[in-house]
Amino acid sequence: MPITVVKQLPAIEKLAEENIFVMDTKRAETQDIRPLQILIVNLMPTKEATETQILRALSNTPLQLEITLLYTASHKAANTTKEYLQTFYRTFDAIKENYFDGMIITGAPVELMPFEEVNYWEELTGIMEWSKSHVYSTLYICWGAQAGMYYHFGIDKETLPTKLFGVFENKVNNTRPMLLRGMDEVFYMPHSRHTTVPIERIREQKELEILAESEETGAAVVRSLDNKHIFVFGHAEYDRDTLQKEYERDVALGLDIEVPKNYYPNDDPRRDPIVRWRSTGTLLFTNWLNYYVYQETPYIIEQIKKMKDKVSHSCGQ
């Protein structure tokens, strides 16, 4: 939570330079607190495992969150029962009149397909278009990040020569944005994907900033300059055994799959994996919630559209 001090205290400027968030008393007095409305668009077939991972990452904050889980009605879930979806999830038609402070769009195992051939692409683009006026800030994960980059900024994905599979080192380019507050200059994050978004194309977009990258992963964390779109191309929310389960599944299917890099000690799958990304996941999710959602979203949630229109207009000047 922010530190609250008397307005114009000289230390405020110094602390701000050190990326420490300070709120003066005048601003604090005008702040009302209400639960944040967070929408999770879960595109993964293993819905229960994915929702557990994300909810765990979101729980490391004192903020009160009200979570709405959404599934795409245009896709028939093969690994989740209809009863489970009807009990715990909602469809876009059921929530499209509502407003949300934040939205998370997960990855999906459809990356080798052109976006337009994904059977729920039309529904997903409808959700992303709707979010422009009904969601304050969106966090996109893995394929969700690729889909958001393509829809909002016109940058298509490319197929990699081999699957990017393992836990990879990423270097922070800019420590100023609050999203990376508290992060080490080099951090680890799991990746599991056959495609990538060309980093040169991202650099060409004046509305985007690459916050972290590496030679192996390409762009790892990207933000739009208005902080309304946060793209994370890895899986900071993964459990200890997620990559192991993927590896064992592919081996059992007889697929040509390499041992996930930097995951097992000495890359030996007979040994227990080493978790190197837990703090990264905690910081990414909590910083996004605190600085890009809680500190910015309007108290009267229906004013989101008006605020986003104002920001878009000022950014265009």
UniProtKB/TrEMBL annotation:
<protein>
    <recommendedName>
        <fullName>Homoserine O-acetyltransferase</fullName>
        <ecNumber>2.3.1.31</ecNumber>
    </recommendedName>
</protein>
<keyword id="KW-0028">Amino-acid biosynthesis</keyword>
<keyword id="KW-0808">Transferase</keyword>
<feature type="active site" description="Acyl-thioester intermediate">
    <location>
        <position position="142"/>
    </location>
</feature>
<dbReference type="InterPro" id="IPR029062">
    <property type="entry name" value="Class_I_gatase-like"/>
</dbReference>
<keyword id="KW-0963">Cytoplasm</keyword>
<keyword id="KW-0486">Methionine biosynthesis</keyword>
<feature type="active site">
    <location>
        <position position="237"/>
    </location>
</feature>
<comment type="pathway">
    <text>Amino-acid biosynthesis; L-methionine biosynthesis via de novo pathway; O-acetyl-L-homoserine from L-homoserine: step 1/1.</text>
</comment>
<dbReference type="InterPro" id="IPR005697">
    <property type="entry name" value="HST_MetA"/>
</dbReference>
<dbReference type="InterPro" id="IPR033752">
    <property type="entry name" value="MetA_family"/>
</dbReference>
<dbReference type="GO" id="GO:0008899">
    <property type="term" value="F:homoserine O-succinyltransferase activity"/>
</dbReference>
<feature type="site" description="Important for substrate specificity">
    <location>
        <position position="192"/>
    </location>
</feature>
<feature type="binding site">
    <location>
        <position position="249"/>
    </location>
    <ligand>
        <name>substrate</name>
    </ligand>
</feature>
<feature type="site" description="Important for acyl-CoA specificity">
    <location>
        <position position="111"/>
    </location>
</feature>
<comment type="function">
    <text>Transfers an acetyl group from acetyl-CoA to L-homoserine, forming acetyl-L-homoserine.</text>
</comment>
<feature type="binding site">
    <location>
        <position position="163"/>
    </location>
    <ligand>
        <name>substrate</name>
    </ligand>
</feature>
<comment type="similarity">
    <text>Belongs to the MetA family.</text>
</comment>
<keyword id="KW-0012">Acyltransferase</keyword>
<feature type="active site" description="Proton acceptor">
    <location>
        <position position="235"/>
    </location>
</feature>
<dbReference type="Pfam" id="PF04204">
    <property type="entry name" value="HTS"/>
</dbReference>
<feature type="binding site">
    <location>
        <position position="192"/>
    </location>
    <ligand>
        <name>substrate</name>
    </ligand>
</feature>
